[in-house]
Amino acid sequence: MMYAGERETTQFQSIPRAPQLKPSHAGGVIDLTRHYQGIDTRLTHRGELLVPVTLTAGLDYENMSERRKGYENFVMVNGAPQYGEQGALRRNERNLMWNVDPYLQTQWQLTDKLSLDAGVRYSSVWFDSNDYYITPGNGDDSGDASYHKWLPAGSLKYALTDAWNVYLSAGRGFETPTINELSYRSDNQSGPQLRPETLHQRHGGDRQQDADRQWAVHRRPVPDQYR
């Protein structure tokens, strides 16, 4: 699977003039141009290793580049601010993000009713930023960061009937900061300072559906758990 796209955004924010006078403020107008593309390739093999097994190996690659500029949301007319107009440049940067995730998935049919799914992904994410707006009081916010994590997951399923099964699953997730989060921090600073979040989860339940798959009931008596 392949995809590509482009996004252009201009946003005027209702920020008063006073905060924008700070040398480090990015202004009240966001001017953003973003390009993104990606590919997910995989190879699947079905065979037997004492029991029927399906093996899938794949590679997921994505990259995104953006040019982010900021402007004041006013111009001065006869000594007074006139809002709703694009004013002086206050931000100019190029951001680049890309990830490479190789993964392996397996499905084991242990018996006619019992199956095991297990897999692992190694997620690597890189972020790079070049700051082109450097003035007194507004230093160089260029920087880079990278995040890497092994992400295992597994699920055990037992078919009570052809239309009713119970399951138990567990896994680990990995959530990195987005480009927006890295660009706009709560302390009005920017730069790749945020750290990723790792989620550990497990849940179980049962699922019923009619023979024609027109309806389904999904219950989770074992709640999702994160930490």
Write structural notes for this entry:
The chain has helices spanning 17-20, 179-183; strands at 2-12, 29-49, 51-71, 74-77, 80-83, 89-109, 114-131, 143-161, 164-175, 197-209, 216-222. By secondary structure, the protein is mainly beta. The radius of gyration is 25 Å and the shape is elongated. The chain starts with a strand and ends in a 5-residue tail after the last strand. The protein has one domain (2-222): TonB-dependent receptor, beta-barrel domain (Maltoporin, Chain A). Helices cover 4% and strands 67% of the residues.
- Supply the CATH architecture: Beta Barrel
Tell me the β content: over 45%
Tally of alpha and pi helices: 2
Helix content: under 10%
Can you summarize the main beta sheet? 9 strands, antiparallel
Shape call: elongated
**CATH H-tier superfamily:** TonB-dependent receptor, beta-barrel domain
State the CATH class. Mainly Beta
The number of strands is 11
Mean pLDDT value? 88
Q: How many independent structural domains? A: 1
What is the first-to-last residue Cα distance? 33 Å
Find the CATH topology. Maltoporin, Chain A
